[in-house]
Request: fold
Amino acid sequence: MKVILAVDDSIYSQEVINAVINREWPLDTEFKVLTVLEPLDCCLDNKYEDLLLGIDEKRKKAVQHLGKSVREKLEATMHGARVHFEVRSGNPKAEVIDAAVEWCADRIMIGAHGHRGCPHNLIGSVSRAVAGNAPCSVEIVRSKKLDKKALKLREASTVPAEV
Reply:
């Protein structure tokens, strides 16, 4: 079995990792920790090019660190696990699906929201797009703690109907 873990640095991605660790997996299961860096879309003058290159380099290092730490955590807690790590650049919706096709994944596990996700929505746009277009099963992992918080926020922001 081949399982892609689509992660970023969000709390929802941490829930994906915890879900993987707390589950029994067949012995032949391989995991691919996948992170997608969206390009910095800026139409700035060339005078900011060095700054943008520096920011992009820091982002790449942070993603490498994230992937390494997730891989080490999985290997330490799931003895004998085969864990790969890949960083892609581009649109996360398309890149996660492309990775699943290319790797012949059996399952994708993804958080309900990413770091830009709005907890008022049931699921984020990336998870929704992946679930609707992936060539394999997709498991959207939610955070019970965050979902309760979002429900309270939603209830507090709802305007009562006039009587």
